[in-house]
Design a protein that fits this description.
The protein is an alpha+beta fold and 564 residues long. It has three domains: 258 residues, ABC transporter transmembrane region fold, CATH 1.20.1560; 112 residues, Phosphorylase Kinase, domain 1 (2-Layer Sandwich); 178 residues. 62% of the residues lie in helices and 9% in strands. The protein is built from 21 helices and nine strands. The strands form three sheets. A five-stranded antiparallel beta sheet has the order 1-2-3-5-4, sandwiched between helices. A two-stranded antiparallel sheet has the order 6-9. A hairpin with a 6-residue loop joins strand 2 and strand 3. Helix 20 runs antiparallel to helix 21.
Length: 564
């Protein structure tokens, strides 16, 4: 751990040296004006305290600097107020110069590196990293200056603050060395930890000041005020400095590739962090899957349990097929962290599914190694290998058309997400004009825009059904009797019946046998999907078909088929 921290500090020093060598004027200017900004803000907070003290006094207090005695009280109030405004203005000016210098310096560095575009938003990343590193350098200088001033004005506060920082550093290093769990918690919320620790340090300095004034021999009120402000700013800067160094280190592969000639961009992987793939490895799953099944079923897992990988079409979700002779098949699904919302959405539906939903039986949800895990069961033992599951796609689509969502589920869904007819709007159709290459396309768009409200009303009048984008052969399991079951439900939605169906004529012909309104839902949903993917030309081809639907079905009663 200590070696890793030292390596990080060495890399940060090397990066700072690169900045000074490649862009000396810009880097020096950014560091200098960052320091000016910090000091100006400190003075802009300090001087109003003197003004408040003067406003509450009849004259100039004796603990003010002797140089102030040559001024009249009212004149001094005016001058200190003007100085406060001036220092705040200097702070704003310095911040603008830092922003400008950061952009110029990063561009100079990128130009000198003479590399191709490596990744998206690399200029913005370079500018942020350059400015952040300048703030780290300026913050370090500020801390040294603050410590020097404190040693001069208020030695007790300086020694207390330095001792506190030293003891906290030792304690953190020791905890990081012995506890992996603590390290993960610290990494996940570093800013929060640093904020709390800096706050405690400031409160200790404040408590020492109070005790010193009550029972000991303080150096004076003005040094105490300066010490209080410096300790507050110092702890804040130290907290920001640590957080900024960690942020810089997390972007090391990108920054090396941007600023160092010999470095290519190779994304760094943290092998120490566990992922679902380490848990799904054969030797690992043999350990935790039987324990999980015993926990879920309340009895020991079969000794002859066979645990095999089950291939699906969903990324970042691992599925294990657990078989035991003569017993129902069990599916264990492990979700990567980026799929947490997907897992929660699936659990919402499957924990209390509508009657007839072509899904496995819900056993329960838990966490394994910090990852969300679902346990599902089908009615019988499935073969280790499936045959043709493509024929189950049509059956599942047909089944979903016939399942009305329960009112409780519908209410929760509508409170959370907009419906199809609410997502269709005039701005969508206006943008499709970009791809219109002839008068016929423009005319069809104009007709659809004129009937936008009618279009939305007819969709809103359709019965609702559950649909999902995961109805694909790779996500379907077939029982021995040929009954299809869909094992992924993370993308389910409630839409007008027919939404999500393929829009090829042969598919729409089958759908139209249920209801002509379902065809409108299918075309409308497909148009939205193509629009979101910026497939404007393909989306435009659907517009005449939707307009033609209105021409053939001029009465709203034409959409009653499914509802009846």
């Amino acid at each position: 751990m200590i070696r890793a921290i030292l390596d990080s500090l060495k890399w940060s020093t090397r990066l700072g040296a690169k900045f000074f060598w490649a862009a000396p004027a810009a880097t020096s200017g950014v560091v200098f004006f960052t320091l000016v900004s910090q000091l100006s803000m400190l003075l802009a907070f300090f001087l109003p305290l003197k003004v408040i003290i003067l406003l509450g006094s009849d004259g100039i207090p004796r603990y003010f600097p002797p140089a102030f005695e040559q001024f009249d009280r009212d004149s001094l109030i005016v001058w200190l107020s003007a100085a406060t405004v001036a220092f705040y203005g200097l702070y704003l000016l310095a911040e603008r110069i830092v922003e400008f210098g950061g952009e110029r310096g990063s561009k100079t560095l990128l130009t000198r590196s003479r590399k191709m575009v490596l990744f998206e938003n690399q200029d913005e990343l370079a500018a942020r990293a350059y400015k952040r590193h300048a703030e780290v350098i300026a913050g370090s200088v500020f801390l040294l200056l603050a410590l020097g001033i404190l040693l001069w004005l208020y030695q007790g506060v300086a020694l207390l603050s330095a001792g506190y920082v030293f003891l906290v550093a030792i304690a953190l290093l020791a905890a990081l060395a012995v506890s992996e769990a603590f390290r993960e918690r610290l990494e996940d919320n570093l800013a929060g930890w640093m904020g709390v620790l800096s706050g405690i340090g400031f409160m200790l300095a404040f408590a020492y000041l109070v005790i010193d004034f009550l029972f000991l021999d303080p150096p004076g009120l003005i040094p105490a005020i300066i010490a209080l402000l410096l300790s507050r700013q110092g702890f804040n800067r130290l907290s920001s400095l640590v957080s900024d160094l960690v942020k810089q280190r997390s972007q090391k592969p990108k920054l090396d590739a941007l600023f160092f000639h010999q470095s290519a961009f190779i994304p760094e992987e943290d092998d120490k962090k566990e992922s679902i793939w380490t848990l799904l490895a054969p030797e690992e799953r043999r350990q935790w899957v039987p324990e999980l099944i015993a926990q879920m079923y309340g009895e020991p897992a079969p000794k002859d349990l066979d645990i095999q990988w089950w291939q699906t079409d969903v990324a970042n979700v691992g599925v294990l097929h657990c078989r035991s002779p003569g017993e129902p098949s069990i599916f264990v699904k492990l979700f990567a962290r980026k799929r947490s919302a997907y897992a929660l959405h699936e659990a919402t539906l499957l924990a209390d599914p509508p009657s007839g939903l072509p899904s496995p039986q819900w056993i329960g949800a838990t966490q394994v190694g910090g990852f969300r895990c679902h346990v599902l069961q089908v009615a019988e033992e499935l073969p280790a290998r499936q045959g043709d599951t493509g024929k189950g796609v049509e059956e599942i689509r047909q089944a979903l058309l016939q399942i009305p969502p329960p009112q409780s589920l519908l209410t929760r869904y509508q409170r959370s997400r907009p419906m199809l007819w609410q997502r269709l709007n005039d701005s969508m159709l206006e943008r499709l004009r970009i791809a219109a290459s002839d008068s016929q396309a423009l005319s069809a768009l104009g007709q659809l825009r004129a009937r936008l409200q009618d279009w939305r009303d007819q969709l809103a009048a359709l019965p609702l059904a559950i649909t999902t984008r995961d109805v694909r052969p790779g996500n379907i399991v077939m029982t021995e009797a040929g009954v299809p079951t869909l094992i992924h439900w993370g993308n389910w939605a409630i839409e007008p019946a027919g939404a999500g169906w393929p829009t090829k004529p042969k598919h729409l012909q089958v759908l139209g046998e249920n209801s002509s309104g379902a065809v409108l839902a299918a075309l409308s949903h497909e148009l939205e999907r193509l629009f979101e993917r910026q497939r404007f030309s393909r989306a435009l081809k659907l517009v005449p078909r939707i307009v033609g639907f209105f021409a053939q079905n001029t009465e709203p009663s034409a959409t009653k088929g499914l509802r009846e």
